[in-house]
TrEMBL record:
Family: Belongs to the bacterial solute-binding protein 5 family.
Molecular function terms, GO-annotated: peptide transmembrane transporter activity
Alphabetical UniProt keywords: Signal, Transport
PANTHER family hit by this protein: OLIGOPEPTIDE-BINDING PROTEIN APPA, PERIPLASMIC BINDING COMPONENT OF ABC TRANSPORTER
Species per Swiss-Prot/TrEMBL record: Candidatus Giovannonibacteria bacterium RIFCSPLOWO2_12_FULL_43_26
Gene Ontology cellular-component annotations: ATP-binding cassette (ABC) transporter complex; periplasmic space
Record protein name field: Solute-binding protein family 5 domain-containing protein
UniProt cross-references to InterPro entries, sorted A to Z: Peptide/Ni-bd, SBP_5, SBP_5_dom
Gene3D superfamilies cross-referenced by the UniProt entry: Dipeptide-binding Protein, Domain 1, Dipeptide-binding Protein, Domain 3, Periplasmic binding protein-like II
GO biological process: peptide transport
């Protein structure tokens, strides 16, 4: 009798397991996938963070951490558009000079303290304070901020500025944590590596090496995050000195994801990860200093330089095809591909003199490879080219500041859906700290750049951008090459990370609260 009961129990268990298996498969087949809470995303990041502070962040590692731990009044969506985060809503005055922002009700910092308008005013005041030496200071010059009430802030601009909403993505600092630290001392504060934020995640722990550098960080969900608790339970970050060591761990399964991968390394990754090709709002160009090299002041010579460059071949060889050729200052795909090395050769030969110049760039593998390819193409047309490279950290002081170059191979971040190319192309920005590194001057373009900053109508602004693009293209102050893609390796089971465009690499985390590793299936009739 006992044997029969035992057999019956076993048969029931087998039937139950089979039924559950069938039910699971039916769920997957006929159910709707729904994010579930849980899991750990192990991400590799290049470099070591020093300033987990939205006002001081300098490196990619800094900015990645800031994106996870802090948030602003606005936060970018998957299309790169600023959307309300801490803000509940905003209103723009008819003349574009006043932005009134209403905060969500019941906002809290990750330590449980209340977040209100005082925190926003404190952050903006600190960003503007010259003693703080914040890289964000320039964004807030000419902007006044006043508290209407605990949940309302009004920003007043001296001049209308259409991309102002992008400014409001600046991460907010907690006044109750930072207010006792003098502005001149904030870079030395221990709080830079012990942040209290209002972003999707909060810092749990840091790991340091023997020299004191941060080599790992663990983050947990911030239950007070204004856009809802993230689905992924924990984020584990590991910081690497170079891409090779990061990719080794990615290949062995020690980490799950890694951003800004060189296209040449993608083939080695295998099928354990999938590659997201994300549009990056950055232009790579060779900027011509016509004052340093008289021969390059000739439009015909600049035309020859442009005709000699096979941009499609450059994208294929250097980027593995992960990019788009451009023909103007904005990161828009080229309208026409102009490659005519024979005509270029004829223009150079007609000058009947040696035209030699130096091509200067930063010491990164990609930039140096591009420089070599450009040298070969230009020398094939009859130019004589010398290449000079500098450490990336030295470019500002040794090259950009003194404008010491004939042609400068460089990348410019033309960010946002409403980019502001003013600093790169307005004649008033030809001297440092302006970034008009082509030393370009065109009164019509100046006027267009001034107009597009203040124009509030989307259609009219789009027309102004087109005119800026076309006017600068005609003058050829630079040889516009391509806009690269941001390549992001993520685990095959990652859901919700449908990222279309980013201005900087750290923007990949803008929607991380929507990502998920665990899922459940709900039948459509119950959803």
């Amino acid at each position: 009798m006992r044997a029969e009961i035992l057999v019956l129990i076993v048969l029931v268990l087998i039937a139950l397991v089979s039924f559950l298996g069938i039910l699971t498969e039916l769920n997957k087949k006929y159910g709707v996938e729904t994010p579930a809470f849980g899991g750990t995303l192990r991400e590799g990041i290049l470099g070591n963070p020093r300033f987990i502070n939205p006002l001081l962040a300098q490196s990619d590692a800094d900015r990645d951490m800031v994106s996870l731990v802090y948030t602003g009044l606005m936060r970018y969506d998957k299309n790169g558009e600023p959307q309300p985060a801490l803000a509940e809503k905003y209103e723009v005055s008819e003349n574009g000079l006043a932005y009134t922002v209403t905060l969500k009700n019941k906002l809290y910092w990750s330590d449980g303290k209340k977040l209100n308008a005082d925190d926003i005013l404190f952050t903006i005041s600190l960003a503007k304070n010259p003693l703080a030496q914040s890289p964000k200071r320039a964004n807030w010059e000419g902007v006044g901020a006043e508290k209407v009430d605990d949940l309302t802030i009004r920003f007043r601009l001296k001049k209308a500025y259409a991309p102002f909403l992008d400014n409001l993505t600046l991460g907010i600092l907690p006044k109750h944590v930072w207010e006792k630290i003098p502005a001149s001392q904030i870079a030395l504060a221990e709080l830079n590596t012990a942040p209290v934020g209002s972003g999707p995640y909060k810092l749990n722990s840091l790991t340091h090496d023997s020299l004191g550098s941060i080599v790992a960080a663990n983050l947990a969900t911030n239950k007070y995050f204004a856009l809802g608790r993230p689905h992924i339970q924990t984020i584990s970050l590991k910081f690497y000195p170079n891409e090779d060591s990061a990719l080794k761990d990615l290949g062995s399964g020690f980490i799950d994801s890694y951003g800004a991968i060189s296209s040449k390394n993608i083939a080695e990754l295998g099928e354990r990860v999938k590659i997201q090709q994300i549009s990056l709002e950055r232009t790579i160009a060779a900027f011509i200093n016509q004052g340093a090299q008289k021969s390059l002041a000739s439009y015909d010579m600049r035309k020859a330089l442009n005709l000699a460059v096979n941009k499609k071949a450059l994208v294929e060889k250097v980027l593995g095809g992960y990019g788009k050729t451009i023909d103007g200052p904005l990161p828009w795909p080229a309208q026409t591909e102009i490659y005519d090395p024979e005509t270029a050769k004829g223009i150079v030969a007609k000058s009947k003199k040696e035209i030699r110049f130096t091509l200067t760039t930063g010491q990164t593998a990609e930039l140096m490879e591009i420089a070599e390819e450009l040298k070969n193409m230009w020398e094939g047309a009859g130019f004589k080219v010398d290449i000079k490279t500098f450490q990336v950290a030295d470019l500002e002081q040794s090259v950009i500041g003194p404008r010491r170059y004939d042609i400068f191979l460089y990348g410019q971040e033309v960010v946002g859906k409403n980019p502001d190319p003013f600093a790169f192309w307005h004649s008033s920005q030809r001297n440092y700290p302006g970034y008009n590194i082509a030393l370009y001057a065109n009164s019509r373009v100046d006027k267009l750049l001034e107009q597009v900053r203040v124009e509030q109508d989307d259609t009219k602004r789009a027309s102004l951008y087109n005119q800026i693009q076309n006017e600068i293209k005609k003058d050829l102050p630079a040889i516009f090459l391509f806009t690269p893609s941001y390549l992001y390796a993520v685990p095959q089971n990652l859901g919700g990370a449908d990222i279309k465009t980013v201005d900087t690499g750290s923007d990949r985390f803008a929607t991380i609260y929507d990502w998920y590793l665990e899922r459940t299936y709900v039948w459509k009739i119950f959803k």
